[in-house]
Structure formats: C-alpha cells, structure tokens
Amino acid sequence: xxxxxxxxxxxxxxxxxxxxxxxxNSVWKQIEETDxxxxxxxxxxxxxxxxxxxxxxxxxxxxxxxxxxxxxxxMLGRGPWGLASYISVHTGIGCVGIVRFGSDRQKAHYLPKxxxxxxxxxFALTEPGSGSDARDMKTRADRDGDAYVLNGHKTFxxxxxxxxxxxxxxxxGDAVSAFLVDADxxxxxxxxxxxxxxxxGSYISEVVFENARIPxxxxxxxxxxxxxxxxxxxxxxxxxxxxxxxxAAQKALELALDYGSQRETFGKPLVEHQALAFRLAQMSARxxxxxxxxxxxxxxxxxxxxxxxxxxTAKLLAxxxxxxxxxxxxxxxxxxxxxxxxxxxxxxxxxxxxxRVYDGSSEVQQIVIAGRLRKGxxxxxL
Length: 382
Ligand SMILES: Cc1cc2nc3c(=O)[nH]c(=O)nc-3n(C[C@H](O)[C@H](O)[C@H](O)COP(=O)(O)OP(=O)(O)OC[C@H]3O[C@@H](n4cnc5c(N)ncnc54)[C@H](O)[C@@H]3O)c2cc1C
Known about the structure:
Elements: H1 7-24, H2 28-34, H3 39-47, H4 66-76, H5 81-91, H6 96-101, H7 104-115, E1 123-124, E2 140-144, E3 147-158, E4 165-172, E5 175-182, E6 188-193, E7 204-215, E8 219-220, H8 226-262, E9 264-265, E10 268-269, H9 274-302, H10 308-333, H11 345-353, H12 362-374
Parallel strand pairs: 1-4
Antiparallel strand pairs: 2-3, 3-7, 4-5, 5-8, 6-7, 9-10
Helix pairs in contact: 1-4, 4-8, 8-9, 8-10, 9-10, 10-11, 10-12
Bound molecules: flavin-adenine dinucleotide.
C-alpha cells in the first residue's frame, strides 16, 4: 500500500493552500461583512486555473483527475466557503454535465468561456417541493416545434444571480431531461436571493421559468436521461465536497490548537487540561479518518469504479465529522468563539453546517449506503 503523493500533486496542493491562506483568508472578514467576493480574489482563482478544473485542455481548462480535484477542494475548504462554493459549483456540478454529456456544439460554445470565468455556471435541480426527493420535480419542458417551452421554479441555486446559464432539469413527459438554459432567455428570471447563515459571498437564489422558449439543441444528451445525468454529476461532487469538509475540519483543529496553547485557565494552557487534550486528539483522529475515506473514494473513482457506497461514506464521515470538530473547536474558544467575525472559528462553524444538508444530506447518504449493503456491497474489494 502506497500513501505517497507525487511531486506534481504536492506543488498543486501547496499553491492552492498559499492562495487560500494569503489571498482568501486575509479578506475573510470583508467577505463576511459585505457578502461579496472581491473581484481580485476571483481573478486570483482564475489565474491559478481554479475556474477550469474539470474542463478539457482543448477548451482551455486544467482537466484534473478527481484525486487532484480532491486535493484542491481540501485546500479550498480551509478558506471562506462562499469562494469554495462559487468555484465548486462552477467547475463541478455546473460543468461536468456539459463535459460528459454535452454535444460538441455545446462544449465549444460554453466551456472556453467557463474556463476563463467569463461565464459563470450553475446547477439548478432543487425545487421548493423537491430537494432530497429530486425526482419529484414539477418543472416541465414541453416540445413545441423546434423548441421546448419551460415552466417551473427552482430554488437554492448557487451562483444563479450571477450565472450566465443554468444546467437544469425538467420533465419531458414522465421522464426528466437535462437542458442548458441561458440566463438572458425571455421568461427566465431570478426570484428571491437568499440571505444564508454561512457561505457569505456566495450567491444563492430562486430561478423561475415562465413560458421560457429554448431551442431544441439546448437539450443535453438524450431526452429522458436527465435524472441519470444529475446523479452522475452529484456523485463525483460528493467526494470533492467531502474533501472540502476535511480542509475545514483541519483548519478548525489548527485554530483550536493555537488558541488553546495561548489561553490559560487554572494556571496552565487549555491544551494541558486532559479533557481538552483528549478533545483535540478526537478532532485530529476524526479528521484523519475522513481524509483517508475521501482519498480512497477519489482513488476508486479515478480507476473507473462507481464507488457509490464509498463516496457516500466519505461524504457522511467528512460532513458529520467536520461539523463535530468545528463545534469542539468552538467549545475550546469559550465565549470568544461566539463573537462574530473575530476568530474565524465562527465562520467555519456557520459555513460547515450546510454540508450535512446539501449535495445529498447525511440522511440521504445513509439511505444510499444502506441500499448498497442490501445489494451485497458490504466491503470494498481493492
Ligand atoms: C447553501 C445551499 C446551496 C445549495 N445549492 C444548490 C444548487 O446549487 N443547486 C441545487 O439544485 N440545489 C442546491 N441546494 C439545495 C440542496 O441540495 C437541498 O437543500 C437538499 O437537497 C435538501 O433538500 P431540502 O432542503 O428540500 O430538504 P428536504 O428534502 O425537505 O429534507 C428535509 C430533511 O429531511 C431529511 N429527509 C428527507 N427525506 C428523508 C428520508 N427519506 N429519510 C430520512 N430523512 C429524510 C433530509 O435529510 C433533511 O434533513 C442548496 C442548498 C443550500 C442550503
């Protein structure tokens, strides 16, 4: 068993870590207060190639394998999640569907401008009445000559208020199909823009389709296959989101260790009280376990394995573990942890909470894992 990573991977990880620590974490308070990502921060991400992670080189992207994307997302997780989520939706669920299932025309049209960040991508699946049970969507696309007419309502769509287009899903008859819909199409509107607890600087809103007429070539792949495409986009995203949780947990651990080494109670630093030393040890052990699950899931996916149980396991362990670790860190910070925008731990705690809910909630991951167990997939055969 070889746990080493290549020199190329090490350099990639370090360059993203430097960007996050020097450029993003230095402006985290500004992002929290303004709820905007500074233009030069987004430009820095673009210059590093972070907006083209999943895009093939012929269209101007880096086309990273999933193991390298996991390393990138782990480092992004150390910084403000508004930035991480902007990048992750644009290059992940908002992009891989075009790369995998799009026509040559769609790829040539959308990918080069997505790689440079000129066009921001998004993924519009959730509706007010269907989140975990996304198959129950109500949005319809009715064929009318050489067009489809879209009617429906999507919600909680990351990047939507600034997106150039939506990778979206609608019923065509009984089945679901995928479409690329440009934001400036008549009949397409941004509804409520949400004020979220964390992810400051991220833009999340409703998207409303009202008799929006889109050309037939806006259909992605085959009619009726949309739900399969959605699941395949989301399954890769599970591993990279899990990696982001590991990065956030690691940052929370480091902040708690640093604070606990300086703050003294009863005549000695917090970290020397056994109860808190054990807490830190648990935070570290949990984070290491999740990291290994993430790396193995990425390794399996890269070898073409479906890794359904393993990617859900990584997401479940990483999201639940990181949340517990951030909360443990808050406890070590005492009253200071509860002060907004002073010690960063409050930001990590707010950002992380939603990882247990989106991209398949922890309950949904358990439904997936239990389903695989019932099918006899009970142990990974390497
Ligand atoms: C910040 C943020 C960003 C988002 N970005 C996007 C995006 O870009 N694109 C997009 O399409 N969506 C996005 N979403 C939506 C997100 O994916 C959904 O919120 C998520 O799928 C859960 O759906 P829901 O909110 O409707 O909860 P519900 O489906 O109503 O579930 C509510 C609770 O019940 C639990 N539950 C549901 N069914 C079961 C069951 N059978 N057994 C046990 N427990 C169950 C769930 O786990 C959850 O805890 C985003 C959400 C947020 C908050």
